[in-house]
Amino acid sequence: MNSVFAIHLPGFVSGRLIYSLFHIGELCAYRTAVAAVFPALLFFAGHVHDCRADIIFSAEAFPCSAGSSAAPPMCEVHLFRANPDTGAETQVTSSREEMPSMFKGNLPLSITNISPSVSSDGRLVAYASFRIFDDEGLRLSREWNGKPYYPQEEFYIYFYNYFPTRPYFTRHKSLNWNIYETDLETGKETKISNFLWDEVEPQFLPRGSDILYALKAEQSWFILRGPRSGKNFKQITLKDNQARRPQISPDGRELLYHSFRNDNWDIYMLKMNDLPGGRVETRLTATTYVNEVHPHWSPDGKKILFLSNPRRPRTSSFYDLCVMDLATGERKYVTEKEGVNPDAVFSPDGARIAYTVSEPGGHALYTVRTDGRDRRLIAVPEKNAAFPEWSPDGKRIAYLTGSGGACAVEVSNAGGGGARPVSKRACVRAPMAWF
C-alpha cells in the first residue's frame, strides 16, 4: 500500500514535508512522532486512513422476515463500519441504488452485501451484492387468468417470482451476484458489473483504479479486470475455465489462483499484462494426487501460503497449511494433521500466520510463525472462529464468532487474550476487512 500525505507546518517552520511511505506501520509511526512534536497536527489523523482502526463487516440491518401470503420476505444485510476502541459504528451501505427506468422508485425487498475490499486510498469499498426488487407496475398487471403479466422481452433480462395467493407481489430477482462500489465519504453507490453470471470476490489493484474479481458462468470460473466505470472489462484467464480464489500481489504485478487441471488442483501465478501474449503463467505446485488450494501472498510478495492435503486421499477435505518461498521454490508445512480451514492470512510483517482449525466443539483460532513454531491459541473451539484479519499495525486480530443469529465480531490481542466484542449486531459469516 502506497500512501502519500502532505503536512503544512506552523508559521515558525517553513517548508512542506511530504512522506511517501510504503508500510502501514511506518506511516502510523511517522504520524505519531510528528504529532508528538506538533500537537496541532493531530487533526491530520482524519485524513490519513491507514492510522484508523475500523473494521468493515457484513451484518443484518434488521431481522429478516420469512414472508407470507400477504407480504414477501424482506431482508437486508449491509456493510457496517465499527471502531473496536471507541465503539462507534456506522452503516456503510444502504438500499439506495440507481434503478432501470422500469423500476424507478422501487427499493430492494432483499439485499445482501458481503466480501468488502477497501481501496488503497481508503475512500472506496467494493463488495459483492445480491438483490431482489419489487415492481409495482408488474404487480398490478394481470393476464386473463389473473396471473401477473410481463412482456416477453423483459423475461429474458429479468427473472420474476410470484406468490400463489393475492395480493400478487411481483419481484425482480437478480439471477446473480454483482459487484458494487460505495464512496465512503459521500455514500454514493455505483454498480460495477452487469453480467448474467455470478461476480464475486472483488479486489482493488494496488496501482491505478482497476478492480479485479472472479466470475462464475455455469460450472466455469474466470478472472476479470477492468475500470471502476464497469466498462471494458478484460478476461485475465483465457485458457483455463477453473481459475478460482484470485489474489493480486502487493505490487499488483502478479496474480495467484488455484485451478483444476489434469485431474488435480494446483496453485498458479500469472504475470499481469494488458495484452494476452504478455500474461505468462507459472505453475507453482505440481504434486501428484495432492490438492493445493487457497493461495495467499505475504506482505512483501516473496512468499505464499496455501492449503494442501498430503499423505491423504485426494478427495479428503482435511488440509494442512504450507508456506512456499517463491525465489527458491522451497516449501514447508506449518501444520500437521490439523484440518486447517481456507481463511489463513499472513500478519502485516509476514512473520506469523493466523488460521482457524476444525476441532471438537467448533473452530479454534491460532497464530503460528511461518516456520511452524510458537503456536498460540487466540480463540477456543467453542468460539467457532472464522475469517481472521490482522489489524494494520499487527497488534490485534479481528474474527467472527458463533453462527447464525449468534454470529458476532470480536477482536483479540495478537499474542492472545483481551478478547472483546466489536459490535452487537448479528453479523453474517463472510470475509471482513480492516480500514
Write the layout of secondary structure elements.
Layout: E1 3-8, E2 16-21, H1 24-37, E3 55-62, E4 75-82, E5 89-91, E6 108-118, E7 124-134, H2 136-140, H3 152-155, E8 159-162, E9 170-173, E10 178-183, E11 189-191, E12 198-204, E13 211-217, E14 220-226, E15 234-235, E16 243-248, E17 254-261, E18 264-271, E19 281-283, E20 292-297, E21 303-308, E22 320-325, E23 331-333, E24 345-346, E25 352-359, E26 362-369, E27 376-379, E28 386-390, E29 396-401, E30 408-413, E31 420-421, E32 433-434
Parallel strand pairs: 4-6
Antiparallel strand pairs: 1-2, 3-4, 3-32, 4-5, 6-7, 7-9, 7-10, 8-9, 10-11, 12-13, 13-14, 14-15, 16-17, 17-18, 18-19, 20-21, 21-22, 22-23, 24-25, 25-26, 26-27, 28-29, 29-30, 30-31
Parts with pLDDT < 50 across at least 5 consecutive residues: 1-50, 67-72, 98-106, 135-142, 148-173
Gyration radius (Cα, Å) is 24 Å
* Major β-sheet profile: 10 strands, mixed
Number of strands: 32
Q: What is the approximate shape?
A: globular
How many helices? 3
Percent of residues in beta strands: 35-45%
Distance between the termini: 12 Å
- Report mean pLDDT, rounded to a whole number: 75
Structural class: mainly beta
Helix content: under 10%
